Amino acid sequence: MTDSPLALPVVDADLERRLVERLARIEELLAEHCKGRTRYVSEAATHLMMAGGKRFRPLLVLLAAEAGTHPDAEEVNTAACVVELTHVASLYHDDVMDEAALRRGADTANARWDNLVAILTGDFLFGRSSELTADLGPDAVRIQARTFTQLVEGQILETVKPGPGEDPLEHYLEVVAGKTGSLIATSARYGAMFGGARPEVVEALSAYGEIVGSSFQLSDDILDIASESVTSGKTPGTDLREGVPTLPVLMAQASTDPADARLLELLGRPLTDDSEHAEALGLLRAHPAMQEAREYVLGQATQAKKLLEVLDPGPVRTALESFADTVATRTA
Q1: Which UniProt keyword terms apply here (predicted)?
Q2: Using one digit for the tens of pLDDT, what is the confidence trace for 81-136?
């Protein structure tokens, strides 16, 4: 549904209404959880949270909970706040690492204040997330600790090149699974767990979340090359210009075709020159690596949907299947 207020495609009107109402409650809770003892801390902590965002992670918690016997349990709401607070906290740290000036159309915390404030604000939100996780019990604490470890390890791996003999593509996929897939997997797991789903459903939705979460980033990689700014609102080739490795770039760099010599030369360095950037963008758009990347993401969507066969047919399963397809084929 293109006019849906939700980030997930939900065609069942009753399910959509429930999710919209419950997500509104999550927004209220998040605003409360971002408050500190002083106005200064509260302002810094709510800065990115109130800047918007699709709230995909808490929404996935709520949707996964619908696969259980008590989707409206208060623990589900708490878990939804846990994952969003963790996500937003990581954005504060990401923006410092990337020296970013804008996030969601607003000044980043490091641009508005400084790096120290941004880092400590991220830590504050991680602390809030940990407090809430403790309320969910030891199993949730263990899951959250493991997720946080995976997320941070993914961020660390992103800063280093693959080691000798290591496949650059496999290295990159490991980074994506850690940075993006791990928290989305936990979102689905928490929802199913605290919504009272069967154990096999909990495991299936967790695996589904990791695949779909990683695929969302890989789709971004494709859009960075293929999109036109007029239709997507994004500047094409941003990662390419900065020399950031992405799925289609890494697949193109695996080529041994002599005809790709010029493209490989360009891809071997940041493309600060506008004419070289435009040349590389054109060559890459026409390269078989683009189709290879699309087919890989489509294959991931098929794998994710296969995991949903443990769910009973119905609007929840349909929504999750549709989301996997949407991630694989999205244009914005």
Answers
A1: Magnesium, Metal-binding, Transferase
A2: 999 999 988 887 676 666 666 565 667 767 666 677 778 888 889 999 999 999 99
Query: CA 106 to CA 260: how far, in whole Å?
Result: 40
Q: What is the rounded CA–CA span in Å between residue 251 and residue 248?
A: 5
Strands of the chain (E only): list them: 102-103, 106-107
CATH architecture of 199-332: Orthogonal Bundle (1.10)
- Fold type of domain 8-197: Farnesyl Diphosphate Synthase (1.10.600)
Please report, for the chain, the start and end positions of each structural domain, with discontinuous segments joined by +.
Answer: 8-197, 199-332
Cα dist from 297 to 291, 301, 303, whole Å: 10, 6, 10
DSSP H helices in 180-273: 182-194, 199-226, 229-232, 238-242, 247-253, 261-267
| Model confidence pLDDT, tens digit, residues 199-218 | 999 999 999 999 999 999 99
Contact between 210 and 218 under an 8 Å Cβ cutoff? The reply is: no
- What region, left, alpha or beta, does residue 314 occupy, with left being phi > 0 and alpha being psi -120 to 50 degrees? left
pTM of model > 0.85: yes
